[in-house]
Amino acid sequence: MNAKQSAPGRWIRDWDPEDEAFWEREGRYVARRNLILSVLAEHIGFSVWSMWSVLVLFMSPDIGFSFTASEKFLLVVVPTLVGSLLRIPYSAAVGRFGGRNWTIFASAVLLVPASLTVYFVQRPQTPLWVFLLIGALAGLGGGNFASSMTNITRFYPRRLQGWALGINAGGGNLGVSVVQLLGLLVIATVGDQHPSYVAAVYLPLIVLISLFAALRMDNLEVSKTEPGAMREVAKHPHTWAIALLYIGTFGSFIGYGFAFGLVLQTQFGSTPLEAASFTFLGPLLGSLSRPYGGKAADRWRGPRVVFWAFLAMALGTAVLLLASLNGSFGLFVAAFTLLFVLSGFANGATYKMIPGVHGREAEVAIAGGADAATAFARANRLSGALIGLAGAIGGFGGVAINLAFRTAYGSWGEGTVAFAAFLGYYALCMLLTWAVYLRQRPGAMHAPIPPIPVERPRATSRV
Description:
The protein is mostly helical. Helix content is 77%, strand content 1%. It has a single domain, classed as MFS general substrate transporter like domains (Growth Hormone, Chain: A, Up-down Bundle). The protein is globular.
């Protein structure tokens, strides 16, 4: 097999990463190039998406803003909500338009929210609804995650998907930490009265990544999906089990990432500089831990890793609850940071479970006489759809976390009730993981796909 690309549109046909000879000869180099650019594009998307978690720290009375804590929490809820809703259509767009083509569009369109942010964010007289609209447009960056993950899944063989997806997601998630670190840099160097500088940095970066995607990324013919993949995967029982787990892993990561600075300001009265000094560390470590969660799942099976990760998250939340009750700032920050690390690790392991579910079903079908190429093509198609659906539902976990904080601090003036709710959900996820994936029940939730007697095509590439 030779992976030759056509210059107009850069489409690769008959991509088969499971062919070990092709993979070692040239497939891995093509996959690596696309992975690097996918990480960069997703990184910028996450940065724009989570930018409002930084900008709200600047919105103080010192520069004329009079927004309440509840209104600020609303400003971080809206991007999270929109980004989560967009993940389903963004995932499907890869199959319709191609991974390269959609990455170009999804990156370039971020110029709109970034430009509007630069213009409005230092105008305190701007009404709240305008900022909510701009925040909603920033949610476009949240959709990039689903399309990026769906695309990269097709480039790698199953044995490497946990690591590749972990790298892709972890590098993208780093955008949350980097934009917060940028906010800290702006506050430390020019003060807390110039929030527009944060958004302005991303304008040239968006242009550059859009150009790089156009010049160096590829579309895969095998990524083209038939209509109805999302409906088909929605009927699968594993879809909803994984989605609920993903609420606890990615939902925790993005929810805490958006809310951490505001929580420190609201509960401990931290200044913008003090809050920004701590908010970047958790997302940074959580992003770096994500590939290792995928790698651990490659070695020890995703469900087992996810179960122990949720146990650790429950214990970490218990410590956070104790710190909140005692007003211990140091213990609070340490426990919150630990939760970022654990949520990132668990997130990588959860994503490894997605291709594994339908991959196992393909193996069962092949053992029953189905054509291998057709069975694995179906598995890849359903895995891509599951990534979009689970990613969208998981993103709503971030919405729920920020709404829980908004309610807790608005009604009780502290986050204790919210932390208790998070602890209960992690316990539920442990129970779900054990009941569905770890308890030995022959045949449970593993209905094989029907055999399809189609001859496996020869692995050659045509342009």
